[in-house]
Design goal:
The protein has 126 residues and is mostly helical. The chain is 53% helix and 11% strand.
Length: 126
């Protein structure tokens, strides 16, 4: 019986270690996001896109599911590679916006155009 208890405690410690490692990764991600947010805020404040005098609003669908250890998992339906977690729905909403910004930044950095580029311009959607 004692070895069964020790095995269970060992499993709990391993799980807690995994959670701590994940939380550390989230903290690192958030600090990177804060840095990116300041550049995005600067960009958005100087760039305003109007098409035919109409303001476009991009709408995305956030799907939230229950995760492990009390966390909620959020994912964008239109961009399945964009997901995050949080303890509350509000935290997931804030975090998913950060995740989308980082995802789009990564895509931009990886983009290698073929042929002669005629124009590269950043657009903002309200």
């Amino acid at each position: 019986h004692q070895s069964s208890v020790i095995g269970h405690q060992s499993s709990v410690i391993s799980h807690q270690s995994s959670v701590i490692s994940h939380q550390s990764s989230v903290i690192s991600h958030r600090s990177s996001v804060i840095s990116h947010q300041s550049s995005v805020i600067g960009l958005l404040s100087t760039c305003n896109l109007q098409l035919e005098s109409k303001i476009s609003i991009m709408k995305l669908t956030l799907v939230i599911k229950k995760g492990k250890s009390g966390y909620l998992i959020g994912q964008l339906k239109e961009f399945p590679a964009v997901f995050t977690q949080g303890l509350t729905v509000e935290e997931v909403k804030v975090n998913i916006a950060d995740s989308l910004e980082l995802y789009l930044e990564d895509i931009r950095e990886q983009y290698l155009p073929e042929g002669e580029m005629l124009l590269e311009e950043e657009l903002s959607f309200a």
